[in-house]
Amino acid sequence: QVPHAPSQPLAGSESRRFTNKHSKKALKASLTLGILLGMFFVAWLPFFVTNVAQAVCDCVPAGFFDVLTWLGYCNSTMNPIIYPLFMRDFKRAMGKFLPCCRRPAEPRPSAISLSMRNSNSGPRAATSLKNVL
């Protein structure tokens, strides 16, 4: 047996609030991942199964194979729609760069500020592993 070290428990309501908040986030993340993976399998699994069948027996009509290929392509076009619907961080990041998604109060980043941010030139605070962590 491992001795149990006494610790300071959180207050009852604060502990429940903390757990409830994290469980909601975990549920939402699981839902998003489930939808993305489900759509991926529905769209691409028939293509890959048909591809293997075509290699083994050469019995798949070309038109059917083309339909399954385009089904996979449709899945790829759905990802940019699904991500903003379920992920707030993704929506904020896209809003910074797409004029149609920007809020009126947000200033548009200039090309100079973007290039300065992405280059190694210009003043920069000293970063170390200690500062990053």
From TrEMBL:
<dbReference type="GO" id="GO:0005886">
    <property type="term" value="C:plasma membrane"/>
</dbReference>
<keyword id="KW-1015">Disulfide bond</keyword>
<dbReference type="GO" id="GO:0004993">
    <property type="term" value="F:G protein-coupled serotonin receptor activity"/>
</dbReference>
<feature type="domain" description="G-protein coupled receptors family 1 profile">
    <location>
        <begin position="1"/>
        <end position="83"/>
    </location>
</feature>
<dbReference type="InterPro" id="IPR000276">
    <property type="entry name" value="GPCR_Rhodpsn"/>
</dbReference>
<dbReference type="Pfam" id="PF00001">
    <property type="entry name" value="7tm_1"/>
</dbReference>
<dbReference type="GO" id="GO:0043410">
    <property type="term" value="P:positive regulation of MAPK cascade"/>
</dbReference>
<feature type="region of interest" description="Disordered">
    <location>
        <begin position="113"/>
        <end position="133"/>
    </location>
</feature>
<keyword id="KW-1133">Transmembrane helix</keyword>
<keyword id="KW-0297">G-protein coupled receptor</keyword>
<keyword id="KW-0807">Transducer</keyword>
<feature type="transmembrane region" description="Helical">
    <location>
        <begin position="67"/>
        <end position="86"/>
    </location>
</feature>
<keyword id="KW-1003">Cell membrane</keyword>
<keyword id="KW-0472">Membrane</keyword>
<feature type="transmembrane region" description="Helical">
    <location>
        <begin position="26"/>
        <end position="47"/>
    </location>
</feature>
<keyword id="KW-0812">Transmembrane</keyword>
<dbReference type="GO" id="GO:0071880">
    <property type="term" value="P:adenylate cyclase-activating adrenergic receptor signaling pathway"/>
</dbReference>
<keyword id="KW-0675">Receptor</keyword>
<protein>
    <submittedName>
        <fullName>5HT6R protein</fullName>
    </submittedName>
</protein>
<dbReference type="InterPro" id="IPR017452">
    <property type="entry name" value="GPCR_Rhodpsn_7TM"/>
</dbReference>
